[in-house]
Each structure stands twice: as structure tokens, then as C-alpha cells.
Design goal:
18% of the residues lie in helices and 50% in strands. The chain is of the alpha+beta class. Strands 4, 5, 6, 7, 8, 9 and 10 form a 7-stranded antiparallel sheet that branches. The termini are far apart.
Length: 140
């Protein structure tokens, strides 16, 4: 029991926000991640990834398949405001640029024209809009 406590303390010092470490055990592979100052354990690395903002460039075929042009639009001028996601949002940035700053000390993410972004349910962040922004959005 004492050894397990020491190992647990070592993980707390080694794990940074949004960093996933793997421990190979004889019968399983465990993933540890730090989120909102709490250590959680998951056998599924994809579960850990669900806590993060995902930003990528989508192909025209993917945008067509998702019917992005049929999603509602939202926009705002240069501003800074807090936001909490009550559901998972997927959005496609039409114009502008913003810095998304998670409140849980995860790394900030910059989004801009052409980005397809996913914001996970429960994310609390600050939107720092650097250039007037417009996006198509969809809540899952």
C-alpha cells in the first residue's frame, strides 16, 4: 500500500494539464490524465481526448458530408468573454481569429478561417476574439 501511495504522488508531480501518461501493467494498459485539477484513470485513451479542444482542417468532402453550410451561423466583433459548453459543439470558422483559453490551465488554442473545431461538453473557457469572427456551428 505504501508503494502505491508513493507511485501516486510521483504521478501527481509528473502529470501536467492535458498530458496523458501510460503505464504498462501485466494485464492492462492504463492512461492517466490531469483535468480540472483532478486525476482520473481511464482504460480508453480516446476518453481522455474527449476533454480537449480539437482543431483541424477539414476537406471539402468532409464539410459537404457534414452539411456544414446548413448549420446556423454566429459571429461577434473583437471582444473577450467567458463561455461554458453545456453540450459538445462542432463549428467551422468562416472568418476571423480567436484564442480559446481553457480555465483548467490546459493549453490555449488559436482558431482561424478554415478550422473545424470541436469543443467538449463541460469546457469552461475564455474566448479572446482577435479579429471579428463568424462560424457555422452544431451542438451534438
Amino acid at each position: 500500500m505504501y508503494v502505491i501511495g508513493i507511485i501516486g504522488c510521483l504521478f501527481l508531480f509528473m502529470i501536467k494539464a492535458n498530458q496523458v501518461l501510460s503505464l504498462n501493467a501485466p494485464s492492462t494498459r492504463l492512461n492517466y490524465a490531469h483535468a480540472k485539477n483532478k486525476l482520473f484513470l481511464s482504460k480508453d485513451p480516446e476518453e481522455s481526448a474527449k476533454k480537449n479542444i480539437v482543431v483541424r482542417k477539414a476537406t471539402d468532402e468532409e464539410l459537404s458530408r457534414l452539411r456544414v453550410k446548413q448549420w446556423p451561423t454566429w459571429g461577434c466583433e473583437i471582444s473577450r468573454f467567458p463561455w461554458t459548453y453545456s453540450d459538445t459543439e462542432t463549428c467551422f470558422i468562416l472568418k476571423g481569429r480567436a484564442l480559446i483559453i481553457p480555465k483548467d490551465e490546459s493549453p490555449s488554442v488559436e482558431i482561424s478561417v478554415g478550422d473545424l473545431c470541436t469543443f467538449p461538453e463541460g469546457l469552461s473557457c475564455i474566448w479572446d476574439v482577435k479579429e471579428a469572427i463568424s462560424k457555422h456551428y452544431y451542438f451534438n
